[in-house]
User: Which sequence fits this backbone?
């Protein structure tokens, strides 16, 4: 059942790319709304019914969930990053608090990947080069246009792996910093400037921090790369989370003070991850629309029909819109 659930999710991403994103290529706002509604609900359904997943949230985080439902200005959710399942867990959490107004921040290279490119090619997502000199002007112009939403950011900048951990460890040693056991040292500049721009424009909402643990992934992160292929054989039956709302004092507008503060936050996250078994939890059960689940399965059936009976048309459609996205990305 676990493998079947992941397969449904992967197939649905392909289907949404061609049956929704492509026809609505020039109406991204409508396309995103439809895709988010369907993806969030099918993601929750798969976790509940296929994985029999227990989404365990620390009891001290329960009250914060209610606060998270309130939409005011632009919120930020920062999280640790172990694998491709992290996004799925975050979507599950956000669906529980009815927050689908996500603003993704990701590396621009993802737009070169077929299928994924059309889903991510949106003016509502932040596509960065991971070079502050190149990203500075873009981020400022982008954030100035925001009115509300929740920005999802992984300050570590990349997934945890043995190689990335050794690089992080070396940086900590050279800069006399505490080296975390289960986390990479966070990259500071991007988050600092996003918060600074939001504060400057009086648009800064709440800053949330999510520390997440999937036991099998956390225990084997230094040996295995948990991409979507590996997730098919990974135990995803439970996860543990600590959600906190953080107040940033005004004196943290100084970059060096903010940097030290963020490092301290990551030390705290690392402590939780290393000791997650010692905390008390409550299971969070996500809800979803059965109508949306039915729509997803109908769309999959329609797509299979099109592939079977009109393979050349379907392939041509994919190539056309992928080319448009690729061309647009190269120009920018």
Assistant:
């Amino acid at each position: 059942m676990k493998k079947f659930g992941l397969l449904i999710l992967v197939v649905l991403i392909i289907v949404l790319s061609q049956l929704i994103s492509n026809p609505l290529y020039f109406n991204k706002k409508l396309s995103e709304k439809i895709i988010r509604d369907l993806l969030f609900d099918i993601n929750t359904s798969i976790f509940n019914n296929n994985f029999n997943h227990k989404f365990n949230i620390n009891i001290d985080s329960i009250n914060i969930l209610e606060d998270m439902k309130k939409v005011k200005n632009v919120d930020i959710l920062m999280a640790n990053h172990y694998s491709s399942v992290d996004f799925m867990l975050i979507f599950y959490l956000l669906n529980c608090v009815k927050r689908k107004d996500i603003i993704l921040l990701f590396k621009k290279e993802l737009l070169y990947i077929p299928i994924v490119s059309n889903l991510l090619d949106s003016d509502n997502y932040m596509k960065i080069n991971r070079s502050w000199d190149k990203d500075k002007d873009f981020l400022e112009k982008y954030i100035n246009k925001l009115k509300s939403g929740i920005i999802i950011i992984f300050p570590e900048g990349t997934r945890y792996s043995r190689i990335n951990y050794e690089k992080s460890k070396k940086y900590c040693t050279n800069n006399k910093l505490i080296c975390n056991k289960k986390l990479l040292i966070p990259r500071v500049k991007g988050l600092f400037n996003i918060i600074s721009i939001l504060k400057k424009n009086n648009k800064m909402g709440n800053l949330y921090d999510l520390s997440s643990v999937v036991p099998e992934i956390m225990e084997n992160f230094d040996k295995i790369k948990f991409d979507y292929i590996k997730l098919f054989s990974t135990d995803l039956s439970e996860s543990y989370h600590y959600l906190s709302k953080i107040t940033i004092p005004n004196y943290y507008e100084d970059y060096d003070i903010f940097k030290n503060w963020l490092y301290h936050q990551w030390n705290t996250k690392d402590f939780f991850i290393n000791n997650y078994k010692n905390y008390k939890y409550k299971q969070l059960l996500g809800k979803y629309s059965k109508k949306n689940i039915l729509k997803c399965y109908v769309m999959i059936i329609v797509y299979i029909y099109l592939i079977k009976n009109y393979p050349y048309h379907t392939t041509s459609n994919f190539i056309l819109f992928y080319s448009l996205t690729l061309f647009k990305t190269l120009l920018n």
About this structure: The mean pLDDT is 87. Residues 53-101+148-288 form one domain.
